[in-house]
Amino acid sequence: MRVIFNEIKKIFNPKMVFLLIIINLIMYFLYIEFDIKHFPNGRPEGDIYKICVEMHEKYGEYMDENEFQDFVKNTYNKKLKEINKYIQNHTQFKKYGVKNYNEYIKKFERTYGKYDKRSKEFQNIHDKMVFHDWIELFWEFPQIEDYIEYYKNKDKIMLKRVIDNNNKQETKIKEILSRGDETSIFPYMVFDNYNRLILYGSETILLGIVFMIVPIYLSDKKNKVNYLQYTCKNGRKTFKKKIVAGIISSFIITTVELIILFILYSFNNTSMFFNCSINSFSNYSTSWYNITFIQYIVITIVAVYILVLALTLISMLISSMVGNYIALIGLELPIIFITIKFFLNILVNYIGNIIYAKWVLTLAYLCIFLIPIILIVIVWKKEKVLDIV
């Protein structure tokens, strides 16, 4: 146990920890900060978020048909009266004979893109009201209208997600409709925002893991310490203890960074949607599994730990095989680049997504979990009988 503890101390030496912090800060300011500081991101996302929060407070996680009628009767009609009153009291609208919201929309559609004087004047009134004065009603009300329209057509919206007449996808979506999961009050920007944060967070974690773990065996080789280790049976066990130390260190780094990430994420104020089904018509993603948002979060966290374990073992495997840092960088960089560039988004953001057959990502994670373990066991067995050269 003392050897493992000492190896962990070597991994977390002050210089390496300082550089790890620098890496994390760079990644934060480049990729993560925006999705923390700018959520929801402007309009109309902010208006959609506000509407969904209000619906959630009034109706809970799901909106059934009776609650939908209540939403139309109270929220929609109330806002319609407000916006009609605003238009009626607006002197410039009277000039164009616009008395209510429907007439305003028709007038805007007729004048949009035209360059005659009256059309331009009306467009200027619209632009000033919407983009300069930021009149809330004219941002919020169209989103309420859209939500009502989407709700009425929610079955069609869900069934359109079937790709190439895939029977399994169609069966799953019909199951979602029969369960009523599509009525979940779960706005798409909440899901998208979390997916971006966990993706960039996992990229940051994996980069940090590689940076901290790769020297674990190579440093001993450079200092010829491995020659001393090979001279006795207990010394050869150091290889295995380094594996344990590397895994523990990686999990410590991952846990600390995830805690920090979720503390930052808590400021986005999305906890009210944790118990909502992600299979909502208002979310663009559909899952094979009947899970809530909080369950999805837990699954992605588990996925990150599996990826961390795999990359830790691969990094240690490479470290044990190469003889210098140039070879180490030459082997490690392509692996981390390919992982982040081509596979990480699929492995983290598309877990359970019906875009892929149910078995694809399950098999992928099984391979990611087992192959590095098998390889490290093979190398460990060779290390036990390796002669000093």
From TrEMBL:
<feature type="transmembrane region" description="Helical">
    <location>
        <begin position="293"/>
        <end position="318"/>
    </location>
</feature>
<keyword id="KW-1133">Transmembrane helix</keyword>
<feature type="transmembrane region" description="Helical">
    <location>
        <begin position="359"/>
        <end position="380"/>
    </location>
</feature>
<feature type="transmembrane region" description="Helical">
    <location>
        <begin position="243"/>
        <end position="265"/>
    </location>
</feature>
<keyword id="KW-0472">Membrane</keyword>
<feature type="transmembrane region" description="Helical">
    <location>
        <begin position="197"/>
        <end position="218"/>
    </location>
</feature>
<keyword id="KW-0812">Transmembrane</keyword>
<feature type="transmembrane region" description="Helical">
    <location>
        <begin position="325"/>
        <end position="347"/>
    </location>
</feature>
<feature type="transmembrane region" description="Helical">
    <location>
        <begin position="12"/>
        <end position="31"/>
    </location>
</feature>
<protein>
    <submittedName>
        <fullName>Uncharacterized protein</fullName>
    </submittedName>
</protein>
